[in-house]
Structures are given as structure tokens and as C-alpha cells.
Amino acid sequence: MNSATTITIELYGQLKDTFAAQTIEHRLEPGVPTNVQQLYQALRAQQPNAPQQQQIRPIINDTFVEWDAGFQAGDVIGFLPPASGG
Question: Confidence band (pLDDT; 50, 70, 90) for 84?
Fold first, then answer.
């Protein structure tokens, strides 16, 4: 896919297992989704057993961001669930 019309979604921890992928190339459609919250909601619609938004930290291009942060073609969007273990 052309990076001018796509974003890369990176999934970590249990999200990688839930979606059976570490990265997803996502083609941008005009107007939807426009921020990381809408993008995560769209992903959860595909996998309802994915963790709730409150449990996830969104990342754009290796920087933690707020849920209302927008993105553009070529960006790498990450979703980081809480770490577990001891």
C-alpha cells in the first residue's frame, strides 16, 4: 500500500494475540476515523473481546498521545495494553 494513503497500526501485548497480528496496514478513507479514539473503536468493533479503551495507551510515531489526537497518512499508530507479570 502507498504510505500517502495508509497508516500502520502496531499492536502490542495481548492486542497482538487478539488480532493475530503485530502490524496492520490500514487504508485511510476520507473523514473516518479522524483520531486515535475512533480508530481504536473501529478495531474493537472487529474484535469485541479486545481490552477497553481505558486500559490502553495510544501512541503516534513513538510518542504517547491523548485519545483525541489526530493522525495523518504515513503515521504509525500504536496501542499499548497494560503490562503484566512480576
Answer: low
Q: pTM of the full predicted structure?
A: 0.86
Strand extents, DSSP E, the chain? 6-11, 23-27, 57-60, 63-64, 76-80
d(CA 77, CA 55): 16
CA distance 56 to 25: 20
Out of 3.30.1760, 3.10.20, 3.30.300, 1.20.120, the CATH code matching 6-73 is 3.10.20
What is the distance between the alpha carbons of residues 76 and 10, in angstroms, rounded to a whole number? 7
